[in-house]
Amino acid sequence: MTQTRTPMVAGNWKMHKTVAEAQILAREICRGLPVPLTVDVVVAPPYTALTAVAREIQGSPLALAAQDVFWESQGAFTGAISPMMLTDAGCRLVIIGHSERRQYFGETDDSVNKKIKAALQAGLTPIVCIGETLAQREAQETLTIIASQLNNGLLGLGPAEVGRLVMAYEPVWAIGTGRTATPAQAQEVHHFIRHWLRDQVGSTVAEGLRILYGGSVTPENIRDLMDAPDIDGALVGGASLQAASFLKIVALGA
Q: Is 80 contained in some domain?
C-alpha cells in the first residue's frame, strides 16, 4: 500500500460473543496493541455488546463499529437499528453491504446506497463491502460485478462523501471457507476499484481512500496481502475472535 494511507485492521465478530465475552476480548485486544500503533484498529461486536465494549475501550486507540444499520432515523421498523442509535452507543464506523447481509437478509445495492447516505449524515464512517461469488468469478464476471456494485451502491455520492468511506473487497467464495484470494487476485480487484474511483470522483479521493481485503484473513497471509500496492488493510472475520490471532494481524498489517 502507499505510505499516504494509514492501514486499517477491522475485526468483524459477526454473531459471536455474549456481553461478558465481548468485554473480555476487547480488554485483551487493548492490552496487546503494539506501541507505537501505526494501524487504525476497529472492532465490530454484535449490537447487544456495543455499549459494553464502548466502555471497555474508552481512552484506547480502538474504534468501535457496528455490523449493519438501517437508513431511517426512527420509526416503526421492528428489529432495525438507526444511525443515531449507533453513535449513541459509541460507534464511529459501521459495516454496510457485507455479503452475509446480502446472502441471508436480502441486502441489495439500493439498500446499501440508502444506508451509506444515512450513516454519513449521522457522522459514521461506512465500511462498504463488495465482492463476487464463486460462480461469478468462474464465469469471469468479477470486474463486471464489482463495477455494478460500485455504480449502484455509491450512486449519488459526491467526491467529498466518497472520500469519507472505507471500501472492503470481500470475495464471497473466500469468506469463512479458508480459501483466500491470492495477493495477485486481490490486487487486481483493488486496483480496479481505485481506477473506478479515480474516473468517478478524481485522483485525490481515489488515492486517499482505503480499500481493505476481507476473506479468511489470517496471521499467515496478511503480510503477503499487505505487500500489494492497493491493499490498505483487512476486514477480519474468524481470526478476530481470539485476541492473539487478531493482534498478530494488527502487528503484521503495519
A: yes
Q: Which residue has the higher pLDDT, 253 or 11?
A: 11
Residue numbers of the domain that contains 70? 8-252
Number of domains comprising the chain: 1
CATH code of 152's domain: 3.20.20.70
Which cell numbers in the block locate residue 215? Answer: 476473506
Assigned domain for 3 exists: no
**pLDDT for res 1:** 56
Q: Which of 56, 132, 170, 190 is catalytic?
A: 170
* Catalytic hit among 56, 98, 100, 132: 98
Contact 137, 177 (CB under 8 A): no
Mean pLDDT of 32-55: 97
DSSP β-bridge partners for residue 167: 128, 211
Distance CA 24, CA 21 (A): 5
Higher per-residue pLDDT: 215 or 67 = 67
* Residue 178 pLDDT exceeds 80: no
170 is catalytic: yes
The verdict on residue 33 lying in a domain is yes
Residue 98 is a catalytic residue: yes
Residue matched to cell numbers 479468511: 216
pTM: 0.96
| Phi and psi based region of residue 72 (left: phi greater than 0; alpha: psi -120 to 50; beta: remaining) | beta
Mean pLDDT in the chain? 96
Dihedral angle sign, alpha carbons of residues 63, 67, 234, 231: negative
Check: CB of residue 69 under 8 Å from CB of residue 127: no
